[in-house]
């Protein structure tokens, strides 16, 4: 909340420190790759796009519609919010992992994610068409 107030952000994402060893290696890799792809699609750096620890303003919730379901919706919100001009900021959070099991489908989820990244090109064209 402090970052939201200080930075006047529309979205604040809790960013985990990948260097402290608290994150399993496979998650460090997948997080880095997906955050890089989301950052490219959003045209701004988003260091931890997969963090579920986030604050969204009411304006974002009311104005950003998603097509994706599951984990893809988190990235889609960031990309579409960026396209619409919302301010996205990050705030550091603790990196805490226990022995929990990931429920992400290792085949389908990456395919859905890549599809959403390609659709983001269309979203940007649609936005530029509305501005004309």
Q: Quaternary arrangement of the chains shown?
A: single chain
Give me the strand/helix succession: HEHEHHEH
- How much strand content do the residues show? 5-15%
**Helical coverage, percent range:** 40-55%
Mean pLDDT: 85
Strand order in space, largest sheet: 2-1-3
Summing up helix and strand content along with how strands pair, one would put the structural category as: mainly alpha
Instruction: For the record, give the distance between the C-alpha atoms at the N and C termini, rounded to a whole number.
Output: 36 Å
The strand count comes to: 3
Overall geometry: globular
Largest β sheet strand count, sense and barrel closure: 3 strands, mixed
What's the Cα radius of gyration?
15 Å
List the uncertain runs: none
User: How large is the count of helical segments?
Assistant: 5
Description of the molecule:
It is built from five helices and three strands, in the order αβαβααβα. The mean pLDDT is 85. It is mainly α and 132 residues long. Helix 2 runs parallel beside helix 5.
In brief, what are we looking at here?
Helix content is 50%, strand content 11%.
């Amino acid at each position: 909340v402090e970052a939201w107030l200080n930075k006047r952000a529309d979205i604040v994402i809790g960013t985990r420190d990948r260097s402290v060893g608290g994150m399993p290696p496979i998650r460090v890799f997948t997080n880095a790759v997906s955050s890089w792809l989301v950052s490219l699609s959003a045209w701004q750096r988003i260091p931890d796009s997969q963090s579920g620890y986030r604050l969204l303003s009411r304006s974002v919730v009311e104005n950003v519609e998603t097509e994706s379901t599951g984990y893809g919706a988190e990235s889609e919100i960031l990309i579409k919010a960026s396209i619409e001009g919302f301010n996205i900021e990050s705030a550091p959070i603790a990196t805490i992992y226990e022995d929990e099991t990931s429920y992400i489908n290792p085949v389908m989820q990456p395919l859905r994610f890549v599809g959403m990244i390609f659709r983001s090109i269309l979203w940007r064209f649609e936005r530029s068409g509305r501005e004309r």
